[in-house]
């Protein structure tokens, strides 16, 4: 299957609640690469690279996030493929 990348921006109560760490754990379970990083405005950016099925699983996960978080909005943008080694927390 073709690999592609999607950049998600997650809005809500997503900083200071372990969102990036739990997202990284789920991403590694799914087998995708990329990163999760806090943004200055309180949102979290999640870059995910994988096949269509993997990207769909990550999309479903990010719609709710971990139990400690509250996701108010999730935006999704396709970006050019970039090779990442693993899934980083930035």
Automatic annotation (TrEMBL):
The keyword Transcription regulation does not apply. Residues 5-90 form the Acylphosphatase-like domain. Gene3D superfamilies: 3.30.70.100. SUPFAM superfamilies: Acylphosphatase/BLUF domain-like. Its EC number is 3.6.1.7. It catalyses: an acyl phosphate + H2O = a carboxylate + phosphate + H(+). Pfam families: Acylphosphatase (PF00708). The keyword Nucleotidyltransferase does not apply. The active site is at residues 20, 38. GO terms for molecular function: acylphosphatase activity. Keywords: Hydrolase. InterPro entries: Acylphosphatase, Acylphosphatase-like_dom, Acylphosphatase-like_dom_sf, Acylphosphatase_CS. Belongs to the acylphosphatase family. This is Acylphosphatase. It comes from Vibrio ponticus.
